[in-house]
Specification:
By secondary structure, the protein is mainly alpha-helical. The protein contains 2 helices and no strands.
């Protein structure tokens, strides 16, 4: 490599080696089977099941949140109609020895 410094020659050789390695593994780095129309490939089944799972997870979380809201609503209504179902505290907070009056 006439006219190039040692550093430039080394960089050129490294670039050519990387290009050759990339060309050698290009078939292995091709797109997934779904892109080539093989819809029965295992990767397609995995993608389908992951979409089903994530959709079900979203509905389960929304259903859980709705169940909590409904349970709290029922508890509040029962407390308003029949009084609190939880026994009262054994002392009033003002009677607590930790509370100091100023």
């Amino acid at each position: 490599m006439k006219g190039l410094s040692a550093r430039a020659a080394a960089a050129t050789i490294a670039a050519l080696a990387a290009l050759a390695a990339g060309a050698a593994i290009a078939p292995a780095a091709a797109a997934c089977p779904v892109c080539y129309g093989q819809a029965q490939a295992p990767i397609f089944d995995g993608a389908r099941w992951s979409a089903i799972f994530l959709g079900g997870l979203a509905y389960a979380l929304m259903g859980g949140a709705a169940a909590v809201v409904i349970a709290l609503r029922r508890r509040v209504r029962a407390n308003l109609e029949h009084g609190p179902t939880v026994p009262p505290l054994p002392f009033r907070p003002a009677d607590s020895p930790r509370v100091k009056e100023s």
